[in-house]
Amino acid sequence: MAPHTEQLTRPAVQLRSLTRSFDGRTVLDGIDLDIPAGQFVALLGHSGSGKSTLLRAVAGLDHEVTGSGQLTAPDRVSVVFQDSRLLPWRRVLANVLLGLDGKEAEHRGREALAEVGLKGRERAWPNELSGGEQQRAALARSLVREPELLLADEPFGALDALTRIKMHALLRELWERHRPSVLLVTHDVDEAIVLADRVLVLEEGRIGLDLTIDRDAHARGEYRSRLLAALGVTEDVR
Ligand SMILES: Nc1ncnc2c1ncn2[C@@H]1O[C@H](COP(=O)(O)OP(=O)(O)OP(=O)(O)O)[C@@H](O)[C@H]1O
Q1: 219 and 212 in contact (C-beta within 8 Å)?
Q2: Residues 8 and 38: beta-carbon distance below 8 Å
Q3: Which pLDDT value is given to residue 220?
Q4: Residue 119 burial class via C-beta count within 10 angstroms: exposed 0-12, middle 13-18, buried 19 and up
């Protein structure tokens, strides 16, 4: 596999003047954005600011919308949502393999389940898994397709605080091992800082703040304050 620095020279996602409107209301207002290959980007913004609209556009899931602009994304894209979207009538491994055939795919599916900590649960039904385990299975399903780009729309939004912390560690570990580009939509400023190398704030249809996170720096408090300020929140520390 190519070293990280080399991967970062290839852009994975390019948006130019991307607009999207619903019922005459502009939600995305001429977004320009480059995401280099292998970069982990978090997207913050108020409820209704257009985060999911942007993610759906990049995923190519918004055929019926009004919009313009140019969009380039890799061929192999996986999407993870807040709910795992596992099919309840298929066992866990069958869910992971959905649409894939053959022994080689099955081997990769088993490996992916082991990677997310679900070895031994291949024949379980989705409703026998906890919420966190279901999200692990959803991650395995996306991994097995070896995505160049992983799109995640609040994937941990429905999980309890402790499970979220474990899932953060897992996602970061999987990203370090496989190095897809990631675009993670979240409401949670701390989740964005813990996970991402770059945090964007969507504001009035545009990228209002584009913050590079230096993971070695002891600057989390400052990042937090800047992101909260961009979201219109001031912290009272008294
Ligand atoms: N298919 C649609 N038809 C009509 N309006 C839509 C559609 N999809 C999104 N919108 C509107 O576009 C705006 C942005 O929605 P979007 O879901 O992208 O916001 P968001 O930032 O992801 O919000 P949240 O954080 O609450 O999930 C909202 O006002 C929403 O009502």
Answers
A1: no
A2: yes
A3: 83
A4: exposed
| 29 CA from centroid of ligand 1 (Å) | 14
Give the residue extent of every domain in the chain: 4-76+147-230, 87-145
Amino acid at 190: D
What pLDDT shows up at residue 9?
Answer: 56
**What pTM value is reported for the model?**
0.90
The answer to whether the CB of 53 is under 6 A from ligand 1 is yes
pLDDT at position 6 is 46
Assess whether the C-beta atom of 84 lies below 6 angstroms from ligand 1.
no
* Ligand 1 center from residue 189 Cα (angstroms): 20
27 lines ligand 1 (CB under 6 A): yes
Q: Could you report the average pLDDT of every consecutive run of 10 residues in the chain (238 residues)?
A: 49 94 94 96 96 94 86 93 94 95 94 94 96 93 93 92 89 92 95 95 96 83 89 72
Going from the Cα of 130 to the center of ligand 1, the distance in angstroms, rounded, reads: 28
57 touches 13 (CB < 8 A): no
List residues bridging with 28 in a β-sheet: 20
Instruction: List strands edge to edge, sheet with 206-212.
Output: 77-80, 149-153, 181-185, 40-45, 198-203, 206-212
Architecture of the domain spanning 4-76+147-230? 3-Layer(aba) Sandwich (3.40)
